[in-house]
Amino acid sequence: MSTAMPNPEVKPAETYPPATPIPSGGDLLDTMPWLPCTLSLDLPVVQFTIGDLLKLTKGSIVETACHHTSDVPLRVNQLLIGWTEFEVIGDCLAVRITDQV
What are the start and end residues of every segment in region (Disordered) (predicted)? Predict the structure, then answer.
């Protein structure tokens, strides 16, 4: 006794309008300014151990290897794009771009 599977209903494929080409000579980043990215600042902490990490509590201060006048690397999605310095604006900490790569 064989049980044949019924033939599925075949539907036509959906059609979509053609993709808009990127203008020649245009920068890909200029065509997608809405894409999210992650900005990060690197503050090196030398001679920091797991033991030091385990001792951290609320209010702990971690000394960095940066002098307060040192520029700090700025990365976008882990790619170095420039250097910054810290600024205080009102109650907020901000960074000023000092150099671009």
Answer: 1-24
Residue 90 confidence class, pLDDT cut points 50, 70, 90: very high
Structural domain count, the chain: 1
pLDDT of residue 46: 86
Domain at 46, CATH number? 2.30.330.10
User: Domain of 94?
Assistant: 33-100
- Do the beta carbons of residue 62 and residue 56 sit within 8 Å? yes
Q: Is residue 26 part of a domain?
A: no
Q: How far is the CA of 86 from the CAs of 59, 81, 82, in angstroms?
A: 21, 16, 13
Beta carbons of 72 and 93 less than 8 angstroms apart: no
Classify residue 13: in a domain, yes or no: no
Residue 94's φ and ψ, nearest 5 degrees, are -135, 170
Greater confidence, 101 or 24?
A: 101
Model pLDDT, residue 9: 76
User: Is 39:75 a contact under the CB 8 Å cutoff?
Assistant: yes
